[in-house]
C-alpha cells in the first residue's frame, strides 16, 4: 500500500514563498511519476504540477507556471513543490498523487 504524507503548508502573505514536501512509502518511489493537485474552495481539485520518475520531465499548470518548481529526491522518497510569489488564488489544500494513491493534504492559505 502506497502511503503519501504532505507537509509544509501554512498561512502566508501574498508574495511570500513556501516549500511543500510529499514523503512516500510502500512502493518503488524511483519508478513512479508524481503529481501535485490543489483543492480550492470554489474551483475544486485541479492539477498543479507533476514530475517524471527521474526528475528530468516536469509539467505545471498555466496558473502557476514560472512561480513553482517541482523536484524530487529519490534517495529520500520525497517530492517537493516550491512556490514563489504566492497569490490568494493559490489558497487550498495541496495533495500529492502517485500510483493511484492520495495523501491527506496540507493546507496553504495566502492572505494579507
Could you walk me through the main structural features you see in this protein, from its secondary elements to its overall organization?
This protein is mainly β and 112 residues long. 0% of the residues lie in helices and 54% in strands. The chain has strands spanning 3-7, 10-12, 18-25, 34-40, 44-51, 58-60, 68-73, 78-83, 92-98, 101-102, 106-110. Strands 2, 4, 5, 6, 9, 10 and 11 form a 7-stranded mixed sheet that branches. A 4-stranded antiparallel sheet has the order 1-3-8-7, with no helix packed on it. It is globular and about 40 Å long.
Topology:
Elements: E1 3-7, E2 10-12, E3 18-25, E4 34-40, E5 44-51, E6 58-60, E7 68-73, E8 78-83, E9 92-98, E10 101-102, E11 106-110
Parallel strand pairs: 2-11
Antiparallel strand pairs: 1-3, 3-8, 4-5, 4-9, 5-6, 7-8, 9-10, 9-11
Provide the descriptors you would attach to this structure in a database record:
single chain; 112 residues; mainly beta; 7-stranded mixed sheet; 4-stranded antiparallel sheet; 11 strands
Helix content: under 10%
Class by helix and strand content?
Answer: mainly beta
Rounded mean pLDDT score: 93
As residue ranges, the low-confidence spans are none
Helix tally equals 0
Distance between the termini: 40 Å
**Could you describe the largest sheet, including whether it forms a barrel?**
7 strands, mixed
Amino acid at each position: 500500500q502506497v502511503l503519501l504524507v504532505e507537509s509544509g503548508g501554512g498561512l502566508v502573505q501574498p508574495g511570500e514563498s513556501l516549500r511543500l514536501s510529499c514523503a512516500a512509502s510502500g512502493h518503488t518511489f524511483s519508478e513512479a511519476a508524481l503529481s501535485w493537485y490543489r483543492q480550492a474552495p470554489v474551483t475544486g481539485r485541479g492539477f498543479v504540477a507533476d514530475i517524471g520518475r527521474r526528475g528530468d520531465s516536469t509539467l505545471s499548470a498555466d496558473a502557476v507556471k514560472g512561480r513553482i518548481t517541482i523536484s524530487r529526491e529519490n534517495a529520500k522518497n520525497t517530492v517537493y513543490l516550491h512556490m514563489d510569489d504566492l497569490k490568494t488564488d493559490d489558497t487550498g489544500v495541496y495533495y500529492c498523487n502517485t500510483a493511484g494513491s492520495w495523501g491527506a493534504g496540507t493546507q496553504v492559505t495566502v492572505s494579507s
